[in-house]
Specification:
The chain is an all-alpha fold. It has 15 helices and 2 strands. The chain has helices at 2-9, 12-21, 28-49, 59-80, 89-94, 102-127, 133-156, 170-185, 197-203, 211-234, 240-248, 259-283, 290-313, 328-351, 370-377; strands at residues 194-195, 358-359.
């Protein structure tokens, strides 16, 4: 099935070409109506071809539908970068002109490549009746961050006065990952939540005897400080440290397109509490929520940092807002490390989860009766 979805998704090129060569399809409201009609047709296509063996998971249709739009996003990015032409001229003028900003171009590359691969992988797992919860949470975090920054940046930045009807289609791509995240968070985990002797042994160890966790705690605290600094810059703090950082390191934070500022505020108000929670989770044993939230936030962070780093380096960013040459490697290194920290935490949680499991009472301990202990030890939520 994933092969069929992959091949059918490229029919989006035919739709774009037809609209680009037919003036009647290039009016703002016609673009919106055509977009809705195409999305409905794509959904009906997948619904009809799967009637004989319908998928057990409704998110199959979301992933298949979004594969189609991934091709559109990739086409948009390639055309803005001058690699291809003849598909998106009309959309650049009367559809969504802000897609030509450096941040949006990098966002479209991420959607057209990274999300496309994730969708195909998850469709394959759904078809084979295999679990995909971890992949799904990573995707949900990535697309939620993607669309929340994108939509807010449009209305808060310099393109706020150029909102066209096609803008409203973006809310579908914000609603679906939110719905997907709620669905996946409430599903049973793929792994047990109750640990035995190994978990009990690991959880008795102090942080000093867990060097990897100690390093991750230090990195998380550094990431929190970095988040606060850039959040204060986005809030126009008069602190000297903020002024120095803005002028000498990342002037891109004040790009009038609005996306960098919105992203910093997202990370300040939503990312900072999560980073603090992860520090707590590495200190306090038995935090079973760590596996889900580290995965979700890793997806969000890596998407944001991809678009932010790429946007600051892209040729469409005007010279005054690019990284100064004498601070280039410092800023690039700091941003890459900042993106890597949540990913490293998520990898640590999933590779050795004993510290994050609940401990089942053993025979001789107060708690459940022996017969229930044996069942609980292997219980999966």
């Amino acid at each position: 099935m994933e092969t069929l979805v992959f091949l059918f998704s490229f029919s989006a090129l035919g739709v774009l070409y037809a609209m680009n060569t037919t003036p009647e399809f290039q009016e703002p409201y016609v673009i919106l109506e055509t977009g809705v009609a195409v999305l409905v047709i794509v959904f009906l296509f997948y619904y009809l071809i799967t009637r004989g063996n319908p998928p057990k998971d409704f998110l199959f249709f979301v992933f298949a539908e979004f594969c189609f739009t991934c091709v559109i996003d990739l086409t948009s990015a390639l055309e803005y970068d001058g690699i291809i032409s003849g598909f998106m001229d009309f959309y650049q003028k009367t559809g969504e002109p802000y897609l030509g900003t450096s941040y949006a171009i990098m966002m479209c590359y991420w959607d057209g490549i990274a999300h496309f691969i994730l969708y195909l992988m998850m469709i394959s797992r759904i078809t084979d009746r295999r679990a995909y919860r971890t992949l799904g949470l990573f995707w949900a975090g990535s697309l939620c961050a993607n669309m929340s920054v994108f939509i807010t940046g449009i209305v808060a930045g310099k393109y706020g006065s150029e909102v066209r009807p096609a803008f409203w289609l973006n809310f579908l791509f914000l609603l679906m990952p939110v719905l997907g995240a709620v669905t996946l968070f409430t599903r049973p985990k793929d792994r047990p939540l109750i640990g035995g002797y190994n978990a009990q042994h690991v959880q008795t160890m102090k942080l000093i005897w867990r060097p990897l966790d100690l390093i991750l705690v230090v990195l998380l605290l550094a990431a929190m400080a970095f988040t606060v600094l850039r959040g204060l810059v986005a809030l126009d703090s008069p602190l000297e440290a903020c002024s120095v950082y803005l002028s000498q390191y990342e002037p891109y934070l004040k790009d009038p397109v609005g996306y960098p500022k919105v992203m910093m505020l997202h990370l300040f108000f939503y990312g900072l509490p999560l980073l603090g929670a992860f520090v707590y989770g590495l200190l306090k044993p038995g935090c079973t929520w760590m596996s889900d939230w580290t995965t979700f936030f890793a997806g969000a962070m890596i998407q944001c940092q991809w678009s932010h780093i790429g946007g600051s380096l892209h040729s469409r960013t005007t010279t005054p807002f690019r990284i100064p040459n004498d601070a280039f490697w410092t800023v690039l290194g700091a941003n890459l490390l900042y993106a890597a920290v949540p990913v490293l935490v998520a990898m640590r949680v999933h590779s050795n989860p004993y510290f994050f499991l609940k401990i089942a009472p053993f025979p001789g301990q107060t708690g459940l009766p022996n017969s229930e202990e044996k069942d609980t030890k292997y219980k999966e939520k």
